Amino acid sequence: MSLDNASIEQIKAVALAAIKSSQSLDELREVRIAHVGDRSPIARANQGLAEIEIEKRAAMGKLIGTARANINQAFDDKEKELTALRDSRALSNERVDVTLASNRNPRGALHPLTLLTYEISDLFVGMGYKVQEGPELEASWLNFDALNIAEDHPARTMQDTFFIEPLASGLVMRTHTSPVQIRTMLENKPPIYVICPGRTYRADELDATHTPVFNQVEGLVVDKGITMAHLKGTLDHFAAKIFGPGVTTRIRPSFFPFTEPSAEVDFFYNGRWVEWGGCGMVNRKVLQAAGIDTDIYTGFAFGMGLERTLMVKYGITDMHDIVEGDVRFSRQFGSGGR
Amino acid sequence: MKLPLSWLSEFVDFPKTISVADIAAGFVKVGFEVESIDNPAEKIKGPLLVGKVLTIEELTGHKKPIRYVGLDCGEAKTRYVICGATNFVAGDLVVAALPGAILPGNFAISARETYGKTSNGMICSSKELGLGDDHSGIIVLDGKAKIGSPALRVLGADDPIIDIAVNPDRGYAMSVRGAARELAMVLGLNFKDISSKSLIASLEKKKKRGKIIPVQISDKTGADQIYLRSLSNVDPLRPTPQWMARRLSQAGMRPISIAVDITNYVMLELGQPLHAFDSAKISGTLRVARAGKFTELITLDKVKRKLAKDNLLITDDKKVLALAGTMGGLDSEVSEFTVGITLEAAHFDPMSIARNSRSHILSSEASRRFERGVDPLLAELASARAALLLIEYAGAIYNGSSVKKTPLKKRSITISASEISSLIGTTYSDKEIEKSLKAIGASLRKSGKKWVVTPPSWRPDLNELPDLAEEIARFFGYDRIPSQLPPVKLASNGSSGLTPMQKRRRSMSLKLANRGLVEVHNYPFVSQSQMDLFGFTGDRAKTFKIANPMSDEYPYLRTHLTPGLLAAAARNLSRGEKSVALFESGAIFRNIETLKPAGSVSVSKRPTELQIKQIYQSVPKQPLHIAGVIAGEMTNSGWWGKGRVVEWSDAVDLVRELIEDSGNDYSIEAVDLAPWHPGRCAEFKVDGKAVAHAGQIHPRVTSTLALPDATVAFALIVDALKFPDNFKASPISVMPAAIQDISLFVDQKVPAEKVEAALREGAGELLESIALFDRYQKEGEAQVSLAFSLVFRAADRTLTSDEVSELRAKAGAMASKKCGAQIRT
Fold first, then answer.
1. By residue range, what is the domain housing residue A37?
2. Span between the terminal Cα atoms of chain A, in Å
3. Can you name the residues that pair with B232 across neighbouring β-strands?
4. Taking chain B (825 residues) in consecutive chunks of 10 residues, what is each chunk's mean pLDDT?
5. Which domain covers residue B436, as residue numbers?
């Protein structure tokens, strides 16, 4: 074989064409052996250098080296190209339908009453209140007497209150969370800022709007200079938090043995006034029974039903949904609330 | 309290422009919820005329009497209608609904063929017109009505009835007069009161000599006022005037007879319950007395009642006449033969009447008023008003009165404008205080900067400054009270925020929810059969019984959360869930302490510390539990294959996680405890005390409740776990770990936990963690093979292989020593 420029160019052109037309990495490997390997034309050309005149050898050597580098570069480029192609084909073959169901894990949830209690507790804790709890099976002195509910009050009849046998035990299922207020006042000196959420009991049949076991949240504030305006402000803040900014409350005169003055509180929602709960300034008799000096301190209290609040807020029309423990009901609320 | 507008109008000057809605809003503003507004006339449409009965033809041969009646309704021709009532005669005026009329309940009147005649309308009863319950006969009008005139006007049917709820502190508003006073006050209208003086004087002018029944208050704790009006020559059969009967019906009471109707009318009008006795049935003196030796009374409702010793009664020299303020006796009732009537009006002790009513489960119009407090000065006026009505409408002659009364206790309350303003939170001037308190009937005297207020006699509820503050705030409207947040003083000593226990309960609940369990709130009521099924013994069999449960089947309080949870799980499965995972956190109730009732403790001041302790100790501890149940699959089945069925260890692992998360150390051992499977229940102990149980539920329980065999449950006593104090974090070593596996044989009775503990002990402080990665037992062999992976790490260096081999050997040796383990090589 004669070594001249043209033949080197020829060798290079053939090699580059072979590389270019390679369709796969396997093919490219064959091409590489054929065009760069020990017996390839370019390798043999290189071996032929020894046979040419010494003065031409350097120039020819350079020419062969450059051609070889060009071919190698082409190989590398082609190899990268074909590798990328192979990889993308492989990934493409691994494609799945990501919309397939994947609900391996059952979905848990908190009960909406729990979530509502969290929301209310967090609101008041943020304002500096504490959250107080107490027993559901309670001494009637704490549930009634200390709250200025006299022995002959209708609330103390069997139609309203669950009594524990024997009656002489003096134990009842608490009819409101107000005994927690009394416990709080017996155990702490003012200033007192607390809310008392919890389960309460009244002898009502379960129907669409009643349940014998229900939840309340009550608030109690005892401090110097507490007024009914503070009560109103607290209720407004509370309602706006639960039912949305701009929701306001109104209070209207009412009667409870444990408050004086007393009021019912309504909130304005979806174009109408909705009854929410009772409230008022803590009756002096109640403060006195807890040993709080009524010349120095005044206080307010309020209380509302959580079931009712939940029903209005979420448009729940049947109490059964709240009490029956059907997972489909609670799952609507998730574990963080809606 | 049902208030016809026409009746209110006798006491309030309403302007022509006022609407019923304005009046209702006024009631609400001063604290009376409006339960309904009802106007029967709005439910009647079309021609309803006054007709005169001209002819009556009795049609025979039918099951009941049927009349064919000719009516003059002011029309050209006589109108004939069929009528099933017989309480009228020719010449009577009746109410005729003509074809085209629509009566309440969308009852359309048309001409129709019936009983072989054409009936061109209907003669109406009160009930058919929605004016009352009376359906015993048709309405016969007073003779004055004009024939052919619209009957609604004659009947006074176009008269809205406003039904208000009266709170227990406002007994005075259980009368037209009392409610009208409130209404006049809130609407700023003139209140036209009855003149007590002239009314009483006009009765005294009519007095004619005759027999007077004497009166005594034998028990001064029972009454402080009683008026007896003696009347003779009564005609008890006179009809009650139409206007009076109509008003009684409007107020929801049934007209009975003239004497009874008059007492009821006066009660509704003025608020004073009255009782009319047949004077002939009273021997000697009429008395207010306790039951004492009297043991029985048959009341007006024909019920024989056993009297309690402290029942307050009206008696005479020989017998019981009435259950005071509650219900009269049958024997002394006014009858058609009565000639003399003794009217009783008293002011009874509210508590005594409340007890009368409760002890006989007998709530009457009278008792409801007395319980809420009747004006003690009202007895004289009301009895005089009733006596005058008996004279006018029953032909009675007034013979005179007997009276016993004790002077009223003087009440006065000293207040100042600033005290009122600082309680309500808005400023009221002296002028406003005077104006508002006068409006409720109080009298005021200025003493320096203060007011000395004497509340009206009908307001026994006004005793202290806050009572008057409510009246003043109410008068000007609660909407005047501004909205301010209180200046909350943050709790000191870092004690603000949720308590550690509250945070723990939240975090446990959230953890379980995020593990796929759904929270439920079950009623805490259980049945005996549930307790039996669950096999509760010991503390968990000791519960509290509700004396008056909602359902006789479920009178007990739960001693454990599992009965409610398993029932809820079964309910979910029956509604189509394939698997279910639930949890609940809540109190449980065990009757395991010796509880002593605290006895009677005064509320006039703070109880002594001893009394407080006794009250607290009368209440059982009610620990907070958190429990869960998982029935069926732990992970769901799907296109990917079968889900994993839950097993005992899932329940155990949840408890491990909860306790570890709380920062407590625990040990586990196997126990046989209902309702769990006797061989598949783990007991968790913290400091030697059992705090939780977990495992598979007993097959007897699951099969009875139709739950899957694979049903597991756990229960943890949340408040039995401590809060680790002085917790410090350990540093994390980044030196390489050396892992050594060890396999050993132990007897199957040796718990894995014991083996693990022995390995830990033997391995020493360089052991970072240990995990059981294999457990194998050949069928029929008593030996179990356990394989653990031990991870060793030092804080400051790389452990050599010699070191860790030695530690592994030491761990193995300890397991051999403590558990009889054989090391496999």
1. 5-93
2. 86
3. B397
4. 95 93 93 91 88 91 89 90 90 91 89 88 88 79 84 84 92 95 94 94 94 95 96 94 91 93 97 96 95 92 94 95 95 94 96 91 94 93 97 96 92 95 96 95 94 95 95 95 87 78 97 97 96 94 95 95 98 96 98 90 94 96 98 93 95 97 94 96 96 97 96 97 89 92 93 93 94 91 93 94 94 94 87
5. 413-475
Q: Are residues A69 and A121 in the same domain?
A: no
Residue B322 contacts residue B314 (beta carbons within 8 Å) = yes
Q: Which helix (H) or strand (E) holds B80?
A: strand B79-83
For B710, residues 6+ apart whose C-beta sits below 8 A from its C-beta are B631, B632, B645, B646, B647, B696
Please check whether residue A32 lies inside any domain of the structure.
yes
Residue indicated by tokens 């009821």: B264
Residues B774 and B659 in one domain: no
pTM over 0.90: no
Q: Are residues B32 and B69 in the same domain?
A: no
Nearest CA to CA, how far is B659 from chain A (Å)? 20
Residues B203 and B301 in one domain: yes
Looking at the structure, do residues A55 and A152 belong to the same domain, yes or no?
no
Asked whether the beta carbons of residue B546 and residue A141 sit closer than 8 angstroms, the reply is no
What CATH number has the domain bearing residue B97?
Answer: 2.40.50.140
The residue among A292, A234, A228, A258 whose CA lies nearest residue B488 is: A234
Return d(Cα B7, Cα B30) in angstroms, integer: 20
Specify the CATH number for the domain of residue B7: 3.30.56.10
CA distances from B246 to B50, B126, B133, B803 (A): 17, 9, 11, 107
Using omega within 30 degrees of 0 as the cis cutoff, is the peptide bond preceding B675 cis? yes
Structure tokens given for A148: 């200025």
Q: Which residues face B289 on adjacent strands?
A: B313
- Cis ω on the peptide bond leading into residue B456 (within 30° of 0)? no
CB contact (8 A) between residue B618 and residue A171: yes
Whichever domain contains A135, its CATH number is 3.30.930.10
**Locate tokens 């026409």: which residue?**
B6
Do A122 and A85 lie in one domain? The reply is: no
| ipTM attached to this prediction | 0.88
| Chain A nearest CA to B448, separation (Å) | 20
Please check whether residues B35 and B49 belong to one and the same domain: no
Report the amino acid identity of residue B26.
G
The residue among B692, B719, B698, B554 whose CA lies nearest residue B627 is: B692
- Let me know: does B152 contact B44? Beta carbons within 8 Å: yes
Say whether both B28 and B50 belong to one domain.
no
Taking contacts as CB-CB distances below 8 angstroms, the residues of chain A near B497 are 125, 130
Is A137 close to B622, i.e. CB distance below 8 A? yes
Tell me B461's DSSP state: T
- Note whether A335 contacts B606, CB cutoff 8 Å: no
- Tell whether B690 and B754 lie within a shared domain: no
Residue A107 in domain: no
Cβ neighbours of residue B725 under 8 Å, at least 6 residues apart?
Answer: none
Tell me which chain B residue has its CA closest to the CA of residue A237: B485
Q: In sequence order, what DSSP letters do the residues of B257-299 get, joined into one string?
A: -HHHHHHHHHHHHHS---EEEEGGG--S-EEEEE-TT--EEEB
Omega before A191 within 30 of 0, i.e. cis: yes
Give the single-character DSSP code of B719: G
Interface of B with A in 173-192 (CB under 8 A): none
Distance CA B444, CA B472 (A): 13
Which chain A residues touch B424 with a CB distance below 8 Å?
Answer: 227-229, 261
Omega prior to A166 cis, within 30 of 0: yes
How many whole angstroms separate alpha carbon B714 and alpha carbon B628? 5
Q: Please judge whether B636 and A121 are an interchain contact, meaning their C-beta atoms are less than 8 angstroms apart.
A: no
- Owner of token pair 């718990």: B751
Q: Are residues B300 and B276 in contact, defined by beta-carbon separation less than 8 angstroms? A: no
- At residue B804's C-alpha, the angle toward residues B800 and B807, to 5°, is 145
